[in-house]
Amino acid sequence: MQTSSVRRLLCVSFAVLVGGAAPAFAQEFKTATRLGGPTRFYTAVRTRAALQRMMKNNRASQGISTVLQTTNLSSLDSQIKQILTDADPSRLTEVDVAVGTTMQWMALRRNGRADVVRSIRWGGRRPFRAYQFTIDDMNRYYTFVVAQDCGNLALLSDEPSRERARQDAERAAREAAARAERERAEAAARAAKEKADAEAAARAAKEKADAEAKEKARLAAEQAERERQAAEAARVAAEEKARADALAAKLAKEKIDWFIAPLVGKERRFREGEAMGAAAAAAAATTLCSPLIGARVGPDIRMTPNARFAPAVGVAFNTRDGDNSSLFADAEIRRELAKGFIGAGVGVWDFNHSDWITPNVLVDFGVLLKEYANTNKLYFTGEGRLFPGRDNGLANNYQFWGGVRYIFR
């Protein structure tokens, strides 16, 4: 082949030397001696940033696809472009391609179109710098280079998949190990069976001799268990009785506590004007709502561990009209909760005014604020009352207030 025709075929512009008329090797290689020129694939890419810029160039990217299609390697298109775009040093290394290195093909541009020239040997004066990367597709192991002087992509070598060979070797080793393990296990199983047969005969004789002794021991153990259970039942019964006695003693000791509850709130009451003058009776309708300050005090009697009966007496001072201040008495049953209580009861209001004595229905609640070391307790409490049977209905006859309740234990 003439030197000028080889120049036109190569993807780089270089001088071509043809080997002797009869080469000593089976495949004839074209020798390239210089990189760069009008048939280069791209411009110089001497930095990784320049290589990444090349991959962003649509003409270069499409050219690579054309070259891979020409060489029947389209399946590697996306991997090659990703490696060159990332320019990751862990995948893409810089190497010196030595003089005499052969390449299966190298990319070029003929009349501006991407193409390849095959069977190339580097015959320059010195090695050329290139980016090298490999791809193993589990069928073949490819080694590629991109010349830094011209951006030419070239395939250095194509060999059977190294990864597949490694996996095949590992699989063969595992299979051999598995066979060896199976043989070992079978031998061990045979030995174990022979030993087990011998031991089974010995055990049969021993078991027959031990049967009566075991039965005797079982009967003795059952008798001992019955005796232990009887003793345990007696112990549990004694403990239950002791706990019941202790609880009864505690309840007897704690049966009656005392409480006091300072409170503030309001009442809405309609008081008949029968014992009042005409002017006072007329004014009564305008003084239905009045602020209250008061207190309740009384015993707190335990009925059950969680139920209390609490009768009480109290006073409600009417801050708007002192003459309407009330003495009252009521009784409630309340249930103690983990952190408070709820209760309900009945009472009598205004028993210091014979004309206005009124029964009432009571509901209240408490939220535990503090429990003292001496078991005294302080609650936030709220109370509400309804006065049924009065003129103007329940909407004009109610009372509510809130405060604290202190229980002395």
Structure commentary:
With 409 residues, this protein is of the alpha+beta class. It has 3 domains: 3-160, no CATH class; 167-253; 255-408, Porin (Beta Barrel), CATH 2.40.160. Helices cover 34% and strands 37% of the residues. The chain is built from 6 helices and 16 strands. The protein has an 8-stranded mixed beta sheet. Strand 6 (128-136) and strand 7 (140-147) form a beta hairpin. Helix 2 packs across helix 4. It starts with a helix and ends with a strand.
Break the fold down into its secondary structure elements and pairings.
Elements: H1 3-9, E1 16-17, E2 30-32, H2 48-56, H3 58-70, H4 77-86, E3 93-97, E4 102-110, E5 113-122, E6 128-136, E7 140-147, E8 153-160, H5 162-253, E9 256-268, H6 278-284, E10 289-304, E11 307-318, E12 326-337, E13 340-349, E14 358-371, E15 377-386, E16 398-408
Parallel strand pairs: 2-5
Antiparallel strand pairs: 1-2, 3-6, 4-5, 4-8, 6-7, 7-8, 9-10, 9-16, 10-11, 11-12, 12-13, 13-14, 14-15, 15-16
Helix pairs in contact: 2-4
Short structural summary:
By secondary structure, the chain is an alpha+beta fold. The chain contains six helices and 16 strands. The strands form two sheets. The chain has an eight-stranded mixed sheet. An eight-stranded antiparallel barrel has the order 9-10-11-12-13-14-15-16.
Q: What percent strand?
A: 35-45%
Structural class: alpha+beta
The parts where pLDDT drops under 50 for at least 5 residues are: 1-26, 274-278
- How does the major sheet shape up? 8 strands, mixed
Number of strands: 16
**End-to-end separation:** 120 Å
Number of domains: 3
Helical stretch count?
A: 6
Order of helices and strands: HEEHHHEEEEEEHEHEEEEEEE
Strand order of the largest sheet: 1-2-5-4-8-7-6-3
Radius of gyration: 53 Å
Mean pLDDT: 87
Shape: elongated
As a percent range, the share of helical residues equals 25-40%
